[in-house]
Specification:
Elements: E1 2-6, E2 16-17, E3 23-29, E4 33-38, E5 44-48, E6 54-57, E7 66-68, H1 71-84, E8 88-93, E9 99-105
Parallel strand pairs: 5-8
Antiparallel strand pairs: 1-4, 2-3, 3-4, 5-6, 6-7, 8-9
């Protein structure tokens, strides 16, 4: 995920942590334009929409990253996206909103490696 920000003054930045705790790197382009790339894992939540479809989205996002007709398809697509983004945690919710399951996608660090034998 990349964003372009405009700085009021030129500053040299090599990276750090955003207020939300996400790690980022800064690349300076044309002195005032800065490209911000989030590094690290991509966590997705799979939830049922009011129209009956299933969505997968990043925590805090306004829009879904993807919408599928079935929960299994949403899970597969979220896992593929997380793997391309450097790994992460997939949280699968039941239709009523309860958490049904979680799965860590490599190369992220699994919080419970010996216990998570289902995936």
């Amino acid at each position: 995920m990349c964003e372009t920000l405009i700085l009021k003054s030129h500053k040299d930045c090599s990276g750090g942590e955003s207020p939300s705790g996400s790690k980022y790197t800064l690349t300076i382009n044309n002195y005032k334009k800065v490209r911000v790339s989030q590094m690290g894992k991509k966590d997705y939540h799979i939830t049922k929409r009011s129209d009956g479809d299933w969505q997968y989205k990043l925590p805090g996002a306004d829009r879904a990253s993807g919408i599928t007709p079935t929960q299994a398809e949403a899970e597969r697509a979220a896992k593929e996206s997380a793997a391309r983004g450097g790994g992460g945690e997939i949280t699968i919710h039941r239709p009523n909103g309860e958490i049904r399951d979680r799965d860590t996608i490599a190369p992220a660090n699994d919080p419970n490696p010996p216990k998570d034998m289902r995936h």
